[in-house]
Amino acid sequence: MKGMETADTVHRDCAFLLLTEACNLRCAHCYVSAEPGVGRHMPMATVASAFALLKSAGISDIRFTGGEPTVHPQFNAIVELGERHRFRLGLVSNGVRFIRKIDAAHFLGRFSRTWISVYGLTQRSHERVGGTAAIPLYEILERVGAIAHGGKWIGVSAVFNVGEERAVADFICAAASFGVRKLRLLPIQPDGRMLDQSQPSWVQWPLEIKRVANIMRQHPNAWDFEVLTINDSFNVSNSYSH
Predict the structure, then answer these.
(1) Which of 197, 188, 152 has the alpha carbon at shortest distance from 168?
(2) How far apart are CA 204 and CA 105, in angstroms?
(3) pLDDT confidence of 207, banded at 50, 70, 90?
(4) What is the pLDDT of residues 101-115, one digit of tens each?
(5) Phi/psi at 111 (5° precision)
(6) Per-residue pLDDT averaged across 24-47, rounded?
């Protein structure tokens, strides 16, 4: 394990580009309320303008997100344009459109890093949030492990909630057993569709993040990973410290 990371370790030459508000899933927790057939796609002209602006600002690393970025009707053209600009391209995806394909590793070879999202730390919670259209949790872990074994930079992003410490420990064991070598945990965000559900407030997260970080550091499989991290995207631990 190379070390724990939080939001303050994000590279300053990196930008995330939300290509679409649409998705091929309708996750119960989605912070942008994405779903199939709903939401706007970023126009190609806007993408081109964004690339030019980011290039002029010294950004060299672009990571595509959404919604589900691969459902953008011009996704391949966007990737080609990014390659022509010589950006390092990254992808945050649920993997539904490519992870089961025989040429998945070839497709992912276009990206400097890829995170595949899962929506819970057990199959039951993953399916409850992601729905039956989501690829089963352990199939994702197996496919990511196989692709990583082939030398591609690929990892798993897993959403977790307050009170799931035992599930965190078991999930790390499972990910390691399937050969996953890059794993990050993301606190579930009480935004978007989550506003309609009874969920812990942000003020409960700082202690939870510390507990989970300690579990990750002390886990017997921790050294099986090249990256083992909590992605404290909104700097929760500093924003709510009292």
Answers:
(1) 188
(2) 39
(3) confident
(4) 999 999 999 999 999
(5) -115, 140
(6) 89
